[in-house]
Write a structure and sequence with these properties.
Elements lengths: L1 H26 L3 E5 L7 E4 L23 E7 L12 H11 L3 E9 L10 H9 L2 E12 L6 E10 L3 E8 L10 E9 L2 E9 L4 H16 L5 E6 L7 H9 L1 E2 H5 L18 E5 L3 E9 L8 E8 L1 E2 L2 E2 L17
Parallel strand pairs: 3-4, 9-10
Antiparallel strand pairs: 1-5, 2-5, 3-14, 4-6, 5-6, 7-8, 8-9, 10-12, 11-12, 13-14, 15-16
Helix pairs in contact: 2-3, 4-5
């Protein structure tokens, strides 16, 4: 009996050691990284007030609340690390604040995740600096092995000038061994009425992304409110997954015709466009632009939107009529 027990113990110790080595690149401290189970997704929601903000920012978030347009932004913040390789979350916050967006979807946001982001509670810090309501949803959870370091998270975030009245997490299909992917949804009470906003970050595999897009579109199709989808899709225009999105929803970059690259590559390479803002048929875009900044390895994308009304009510229906098939796309 002793030999089998010793063998099992050795296998367990080797497994833990491999996991620690695999995490060292990102965490630089011992930790166990786990994907989040479907029934165990955690949300952190905070509807702030001016008391939560630094005094000099309490009035800076007011913006245009006349009920005309909504400004939305998507930004993969690379956990606060810019093209220089240095961690500088304040530079991220300054880039976001300069845009004066009403609603912001962020990806690659850390919360006590590890040394790479100095164990910062980035959702709380960003929401406080910007003076906005927020919801944060984890995609990955890390259990730090050193005493007192607790649990860390990595995922998506939505910031809003207006109150967030509900939030949900959607676990997207992910191949075994790949980074877990999720989509975070917030229901936001805007002057134009309630809208559903999604922030997501798709995978690195072509086929996985296509399955993730199908799952996301199914969830969007079930939503009766006007929908905005913000995210890093890790795919260029014309790819099967982006073609499927474009068959069902509106790409603000294509609507306005000002769709520049969003991801830093080597100096000799053209920046690919992999970050998008998508709208259902309840909304229209009146502007779209990419924001130059070295604060992250991605550039932020910003669009000004209007909610289309009929009889003073938002138009319903978020999937293009007559386009229900993805036949011919990669399977």
């Amino acid at each position: 009996m002793r030999k089998p027990m010793a063998g099992a113990l050795l296998v367990a110790l080797l497994s833990i050691w491999i996991m620690l080595l695999g995490n060292a690149r990102y965490l630089a401290v011992p930790a166990l990284t786990l994907p989040v189970a479907k029934d165990d997704l955690q949300l952190v929601t905070r509807n702030g007030s001016s008391d939560d903000m630094p005094e000099n920012l309490a009035g800076a978030r007011r913006g245009d609340q006349s009920g005309g347009t909504l400004r939305v932004m998507t930004y993969n913040i690379h956990y606060g690390t810019g093209v220089s390789g240095e961690l500088d979350l304040e530079q991220i916050a300054t880039t976001i604040r300069a845009v004066n967006a009403d609603i912001i979807g962020l990806q690659e946001v850390d919360s006590n995740f590890g040394k790479r982001s100095e164990f910062q509670d980035q959702p709380r810090l960003l929401a406080r600096y910007l003076g906005m309501h927020y919801v944060y949803g984890e995609s990955i959870r890390v259990h730090h092995l050193f005493p007192g370091q607790g649990t860390g998270y990595y995922g998506n975030m939505i910031l809003s000038r207006y109150p967030i009245i509900d939030a949900q997490m959607l676990k997207l299909p992910t191949t075994w061994g790949a980074e877990a992917r999720t989509a975070l949804k917030a229901i936001i009470a805007t002057p134009q009425g309630q809208i559903a906003v999604w922030s997501t970050h798709l995978g690195l595999s072509h086929r996985a992304r296509l399955e993730q897009v199908r799952s996301l579109l199914t969830a969007v199709n079930a939503e009766e409110r006007p929908c905005v989808i913000l995210g890093d899709f890790n795919a260029v225009t014309g790819s099967p997954e982006i073609s499927l999105m474009a068959n069902r929803l509106q790409d603000t970059g294509e609507l306005i015709g000002n769709a520049g690259g969003t991801f830093y590559m080597a100096a000799s390479q053209t920046m690919p466009r992999i970050d998008y803002i998508w709208l259902d048929q309840s909304l229209d875009a009146i502007s779209h632009r990419v924001v130059p900044s070295p604060a992250s390895d991605h550039l932020a994308v910003v669009a000004d939107l209007v909610v289309l009304l009929k009889d003073n009510q938002p138009i319903k229906g978020n999937i293009r009529k007559g386009v229900e098939s993805d036949a011919g796309l990669l399977h």
